[in-house]
Amino acid sequence: MVRNTSALVGTTQARPGAFGFLTDTTLCIGCKACEVACKQWNQLPMDDFGFTGRSYDNTGDLGATTWRHVAFIERVADREGRRPTRLQPFQSNWLMFSDVCKHCVNAGCLEACPTGAIIRTEFDTVVIQQDICNGCGYCVPACPFGVPALSPLDGKAHKCTLCYDRLKDGLEPACSKACPTDAIQFGPVHALLDRAKVRVAELRDQGVDAQLYGDLALGGTGGIGGLNALFILTAPPEVYNLPAQPELPQRRVLPAFLTTALAALALGLATLLTFWRTEKEGAHG
Amino acid sequence: MAKMGAGHYRQASVQVVNTEMAPGYYGLPVIHGPHWRWSIVFYFVLGGLAGGSAVLAAVAQLVGGYWARPIVRAGRYLAVLAVLPGPLLLIIDLGRPERFHHMLRVLKLRSPMSLGVWGLIGFTATALLNALQQVAEDGLLGRRNPVAHALRCLPTRLLAATSALPAFFLAGYTGVLLGATAVPLWARNALRLGPLFLCSALSSAAAALSLLIGHRPTARRAQHALERVEQVAVLGELILLETLRRSDTVVTRPLREGREGLAYTGARVGSALALVLHSIAKLLPRSPHVWLRMLGSLAALVSAFLLRAAMIFGGRRSAEDPVATIAITRKDTGSPSTAP
User: Fold this and answer.
1) Which of A215, A269, A218, A163 is nearest to A13 (CA)?
2) Closest Cα in chain A, distance from residue B325 (Å)
3) What distance in Å separates the CA atoms of residue B47 and residue B10, rounded to the nearest whole number?
4) Is pLDDT of B13 > 80?
5) A-chain residues within 8 Å CB-CB of B193?
6) Contact B338 A239 (CB under 8 A)
7) What residues of chain A, 189 to 218, have a C-beta less than 8 Å from chain B?
8) Can you tell me the distance from the alpha carbon of A174 to that of B160, in angstroms, rounded to the nearest whole number?
9) Could you tell me if B79 and B204 are in contact, meaning their C-beta atoms sit under 8 angstroms apart?
10) Which H or E run includes B7?
11) CA dihedral for B117, B122, B124, B125, sign (positive or negative)
């Protein structure tokens, strides 16, 4: 399995015309300009006004009204439990990570949607059409990354649209436009992928344990076919609350229907035989 | 206004103090859980009951003789009565109930919910036709009514046969629907949930029908047949409940703890009780042991309800558990190194 996945590193099934993000966490300074720009452009209401009391992250999670979320991960100890005594290159002892919808090549939310509200756009991004969504909520648990959420304000599901309206007008998404360090880059997925590979190699040369998240080996696994929103990480994905090798949930639909059909056959036959036996017994006695 | 996930971190921040050893990001959930609550639990139970009743009525129609008439009659009525609240329960669960008809825009073969909507419509149509024929046969539409005459002329056995497939579908697809999500408890048991719900559907329908017709002295043979079916289905249910619980200790944690754990235990005890009571009633000679049988059937019904409740609310709990999500999404290495 490990040998198989190594051949998939740096590959994606994204189509040539696909657009996406490359979020380089080594360049993120945690300013949250992306969060703010997203809220402003998309006119999203504010979240619960409170403190988590945990880190500089008072947003907590992606949600119906939060389509960019900057996570702050403090490296209190290394893997052996030792406290760090010197600052590491890039991001010191803090990991800053701007999370966003992954715009999967094969998206669980899109395949789950029973109304056809979730569509693949001409930019190969995944968008929920707000005039169609009826708030059934099936896309919410169908996403392996925990991105879509139902809004208590309007009862519908919401998530990042990759600024579909801006792309239509030839503008880049609000978050990448606002990012002061270019940690969030927007462009054609294949160009971003090439850039990411160069950057990961560069970081490795500098002694940083960097890796690409969103290819067929990591993040875009299990039938997802790659992510149109790529990330460069310097720790295992779980540290950022990202699943390492998620699976497209709809992969299980056919096998699950087959076992159910098998059970139906067995139970149907058992019922048939039981009734038939009862019929026979009556004929004899 | 608080956003949907806002409740998560308040809970987690109390539990997770040692962030160095906690997996993931401060113990926060990796995925978002479903919002489904009681209306969906009731829909799952009633859908199973309707599907199971239709299956039993169809089989009784196809191979049963005169003795099976009470099963056909009660089964056809119960199927339609149990399925009719279904669409209502589903619609009130929507975030925008007035848009329920948007479900009818598309048919998506890889979306169990889309399939389910069409399956529910198909089942309701066949169940309604069967029930209407029963109404005509019972003379409730009058003797000379041309509509009643037309309904009586419909090919009975063909009607029964066509209702069986959507009935099985309705009873089982809900398990597939849960399995096709990222929720660890459901995802890991995707292959088991459909068969489990089917067994539970058939056992609960057999139990309900034998409770409905059991008091009649003329229906002794029918009740006998129903009890046998119930025992087979309950046995299958019990085996699946046990294998599911023992399959994966990390993922099935919600089924062993808290209220969901209690409900799941209740479902297991209920099934076991149904099996034992029916067996005792059968072993004891002569007297009919009506109370034992009725208690057994009641236990099967309660078990069907508790199973759906435990599965749906357990799934919500499971989605909040980052340990379970991380465990099922790490495939190439044994244990993830979680400390940065």
Assistant:
1) A215
2) 7
3) 36
4) no
5) 256
6) yes
7) none
8) 59
9) no
10) helix B6-15
11) positive
d(CA B133, CA B72): 11
Strand partners, A94: A74
Tell me how far apart the alpha carbons of residues A223 and A247 are, in angstroms, rounded to a whole number: 6
Give the separation between CA A123 and CA B94, rounded to whole angstroms: 30
> Is residue B213 a contact partner of residue B222, using CB atoms and an 8 Å limit?
yes
Q: pLDDT digit of tens for each residue in chain A (285 aa)?
A: 444 567 888 999 999 999 999 999 999 999 999 999 999 999 999 887 888 888 889 998 999 999 999 999 987 766 666 776 766 666 667 889 999 999 999 999 999 999 999 999 999 999 999 999 999 999 999 999 999 999 999 999 999 999 999 999 999 999 999 999 999 999 999 999 999 999 999 999 988 889 999 999 999 999 999 999 999 999 899 999 999 999 999 999 999 999 999 999 999 999 999 999 998 887 654
In a domain, B8, yes or no: no
CATH number for B114: 1.20.1630.10
The long-range contacts involving B221-225, CB below 8 angstroms and separated by at least 24 positions, are: B221/A278, B221/A281, B221/A282, B221/B67, B221/B68, B222/B60, B222/B64, B222/B67, B222/B68, B222/B69, B222/B70, B222/B71, B223/B293, B224/A278, B225/A274, B225/A275, B225/A278, B225/B60, B225/B64, B225/B68, B225/B71
Could you report the per-residue pLDDT of B138-183, keeping only the tens digit for each? Answer: 988 887 889 999 998 999 999 999 999 999 999 999 999 999 999 9
Please check whether residue B142 touches A, CB under 8 A.
no
Spell out where A25-116 has E strands.
Answer: 68-74, 94-100
Domain count, chain B: 1
Which candidate in A67, A259, A276 is best for mutational testing of the B interface (most B CBs within 10 A)? Answer: A259
Contact assessment for residue A239 and residue B340, using Cβ atoms and an 8 Å cutoff: yes
Q: Which domain holds residue B133?
A: 36-323
- Tell me the one-letter amino acid at A51: F
What's the predicted TM-score (pTM) here? 0.92
Q: Which residue of A has its CA nearest to B113?
A: A114
Which has the closest alpha carbon to A244: B189, B23, B21? B23
Q: Which of A8, A2, A19 shows the shortest CA–CA distance to A173?
A: A19
Q: From A207, A206, A231, select the one nearest A218 (Cα to Cα).
A: A231
Q: E strands along A25-129, which residues?
A: 68-74, 94-100, 118-120, 126-128
Cβ–Cβ below 8 Å for B176 and A256: yes
B273: in domain: yes
End-to-end CA distance of chain B: 34
d(CA B82, CA B53): 9
Between residues 234 and 263 of chain B, which touch chain A (CB distance below 8 Å)? 236
CA distances for A40 relative to A195, A215, B26, angstroms: 29, 31, 28
User: Residue A77 is encoded by which pair of tokens?
Assistant: 């100890």
Q: Does A183 touch chain B (CB under 8 A)?
A: no
A136 interface with B at CB cutoff 8 Å: yes
- Please say whether the beta carbons of B79 and B50 come within 8 A: yes
The answer to whether B180 contacts A252, with C-beta atoms less than 8 Å apart, is yes
CA distance linking residue B157 with residue B177, whole number of Å: 31
Tokens of residue A142, six digits? 């169908």
